[in-house]
Amino acid sequence: MNLKQLSLPELGEALAPLAPTPTAVRKVFAAVFAHGARTVEEVCAAPQVPRRVAEHLRAHGQMPRLEVVERRQAEDGFVKYLFGSPLGGRVEAVRIPIFDEKYIVCVSSQVGCALACDFCMTGKLGFQRNLKTWEILDQVMQVREEADRPVRGVVFMGMGEPLLNYAETIRAAQILSNPAGFAISGTAITFSTAGMVPAIRRYTSEGHPYRLAFSVTSAIPEKRLKVLPIEKGHPLPELVEAIREYTQVRRERAMIAYVAISGFNLGREDAQALKDTFEGIPIKVDLIDVTDPTGKYLPPSAEELKAFRDHLQILKAPIARRYSGGKDIGAACGTLEASQYGGTVLPPPPAAPAQSVHEGS
Prior knowledge:
Its EC number is 2.1.1.-. Helix content is 33%, strand content 20%. It is an alpha/beta fold. The protein has an eleven-stranded mixed beta sheet. Strands 5-6 form a two-stranded antiparallel ribbon. The longest helix has 15 residues, at 236-250. It is globular and about 70 Å long.
């Protein structure tokens, strides 16, 4: 029984033959996720865990853990964690500082990626496998263990397309947002998708509280196809209809992620295409400078970006420029490839004393 793989209802079902009280089940769940127990024995020592449950966990419980290969800090304070998994492969997570108050963790959901977006280094790795729920959660757990500020948000924007690993990523989000889990607000959890239309429609119909960010990059299909091969399988008109349904159900603006590429998608015609494509759909646009270590795609100059933002005024929609940090360590959007370069390699923190799983959840 992998205790880091189970949602609260699933844990209750797994322990049902022992007839624990709902409080006892919740205490086990909270010991694992809210209090960050590292061993089964620490879980068993939590208050209000009945002896018969503790004995069962000692005999059958597991608490696997990713290996931290290294921690590397960028000049701007972003920290990239390189993890190795006992199931095979390496993935990366990024600790993102938000002013001096909190952190957001950017997590990976797959080893590699099958979508092969042309400006994305992860896509050049190809697809190896989906991560399990516990592997996704352990990225957050280990960052949280070492953090000097609280972790208040998680974005599924690391390696992989999260909606191609639907069941595992949704379970991870459910545990992250559970008050007895990580207690992260559902609105502070974001899935970034390149446009998996069937999964978007499923997500919308299931009514999850988390947010979706839709990677569009160009509203001109021919241009989009050049950089996002998913355009061939899920054409832009299909994606737009799925986004329309999403906004109608959610009653909020859809976040349109737009990778800004110099000389490619920043003209007046590109802004007009966005207006025409999303007519009648409430959106907000996140501009993200492309980061391509190969040099094939270049970020816009300040003048080019300003001109494009002026063109975008015809949308009459919020326009934001998303900061993509950690460029010097390969932690920026589109650069995650399980790499090791740049910045400052951080030493492991001092060994923590045996954890006391306390009362309170």
